[in-house]
Design a protein that fits this description.
Helix content is about 60%, strand content about 5%. The chain has about 240 residues and is mainly alpha-helical. The longest helix is centred in the middle third of the chain and has 25 residues. The protein is globular.
Length: about 240
């Protein structure tokens, strides 16, 4: 299957300036350069400017950010601990590749943990947060086919992260954020990391929104778990078919 088109940054090429926001030059800022470089790299992964298997162009990135390679390497080491990149001696840092079987395991974990987060979100959500929640996926209203896959994938990530902000404890939120990045950014065979078509999953997202808005914790957890169970089943069928 053809590799999906994505904005990317490699050692010998940079994305079109119109396709992404320019990198922020950090050279004039001295505090927390490691953390700032880490966050910029993570955003690049989420936006699929770096794809599975890519070599990370350290010199180019350091130049673009206006920093030395030391904070950049420290940031890459943080990402390596999170299993998002890997280092190869004498060759540099590379984006991790995950097998479909590894993805299945990640979806299995997300099913349990995000199910719990959805339950907690339904129990803790405020009226103001319900109003915010109700605005998710509004641009995809009606029965029209969703053609802007990138926009839908971005809204999908925002939705799940919003629920984590409400329903997940700090340690659980950190774990799930990493799993979410892997799920959405490391699948080269799935458009924008979406395992199933938007026309199918948007119904599940809307059902989750309704359950959480009415503070039905049991329904919220059940719908969230089914959401990931169905995606996991698609990946499992692909493995069994030998894709």
């Amino acid at each position: 299957m053809a590799r999906p088109a994505a904005r990317r940054l490699t050692g010998d090429a940079t994305p079109d300036a119109a396709a992404r926001r320019p990198l922020v030059n950090l050279g004039a800022e001295h505090a927390n350069l490691d953390q700032k470089a880490y966050q910029i790299l993570k955003n690049m992964i989420v936006e699929r400017q770096l794809l599975p298997g890519d070599k990370i162009p350290q010199e180019k990135l350091a130049e673009d950010l206006g920093i030395s390679r030391t904070p950049l390497i420290n940031a890459l080491k943080f990402l390596e601990k999170e299993k998002l990149v890997r280092s190869i001696p004498r060759r540099g840092f590379f984006m991790r590749k995950f097998t479909k079987r590894e993805m299945i395991s990640i979806f299995e974990l997300r099913e349990v943990l995000e199910g719990l987060a959805a339950r907690k979100a339904a129990q803790k959500i405020t009226e103001k947060q319900i109003a915010q929640l109700s605005r998710f996926f509004q641009e995809f209203s009606g029965d029209k086919e969703i053609k802007d896959i990138r926009a839908y994938a971005r809204e999908d990530r925002r939705f799940h992260n919003f629920l984590l902000e409400i329903g997940a404890k700090e340690f659980l939120k950190s774990i799930l954020e990493t799993y979410n990045i892997i799920s959405s950014s490391y699948q080269v065979l799935a458009p924008e990391g979406l395992v199933r078509p938007p026309g199918e999953t948007i119904r599940e997202h809307r059902a989750m929104i309704a359950a959480i808005a009415r503070r039905d914790a049991e329904a919220a957890e059940s719908i969230m778990r089914q959401h990931f169970k169905r995606s996991r089943a698609v990946l499992q069928e692909s493995v069994e078919a030998g894709d």
